[in-house]
Amino acid sequence: MSGRTPILDTEAGYGLVTRLLHWSLAVLILWQLAGMGFKRVLGGESAVTQFFRGHHGDLGALIFALAVARVLWAVAMRNRRPDHGAGLQGLAVKAGHAALYALIVLVPLAAILRAIGGTRGFAPFGLEITAPREAPIEWMVAFGNALHGEAGWVMAALIAGHVVMVGLHEGLWRDGTLKRMAGRA
């Protein structure tokens, strides 16, 4: 392959769009998780926590939009992507990625529904989607409260597993998996 990254995925590697979506989501989600980690360790009022959590809702809305784009793009590229292998290993890879995709959409969606159904309204980056309301829509708030935080920590665990597997692919199996996503394939 030449030095140019193709826009579309190929059997040899992931294209520019997939890579941009993957790494943008990775940075944004790690930022969000760092903020929540600092909140748990340092409390909600610390300067470090405030630095990371200052735009939590705005970034969550951006993550949701990018996650939906990522899922749609993955569906469009499903027959062009590198093969994850056959048998139990291939099935585990597909199941792990499906779980990650589901949570990357579900976690911000739960928070967005909670915000829309809450009394403060929903205005990511100052763009009013719903105005404040006098009474909450209970099911939306309950859904968001029940899912957002806990599912976020489950997502964090899956991301940790994802990173461990990249380490195994690179350090033990040396099969070029990271190169296909990092743009060096």
Features:
single chain, 185 residues, mainly alpha, 6 helices, 70% helix, elongated
Describe this structure in words.
The structure is a single chain. Helix 3 (56-77) runs antiparallel to helix 4 (87-117). With 185 residues, this protein is mainly alpha-helical. The model has no long low-confidence stretch (mean pLDDT 94). The chain has helices spanning 16-42, 47-53, 56-77, 87-117, 138-173, 177-182.
Structure summarized in a few sentences:
With 185 residues, this protein is mainly α. The chain has helices at 16-42, 47-53, 56-77, 87-117, 138-173, 177-182. Helix content is 70%, strand content 0%.
Helix content: 55-70%
Radius of gyration: 18 Å
Q: Please report the distance between the alpha carbons of the first and last residues.
A: 8 Å
Q: List how many beta strands DSSP finds.
A: 0
Topology:
Elements: H1 16-42, H2 47-53, H3 56-77, H4 87-117, H5 138-173, H6 177-182
Helix pairs in contact: 1-2, 1-3, 3-4, 4-5
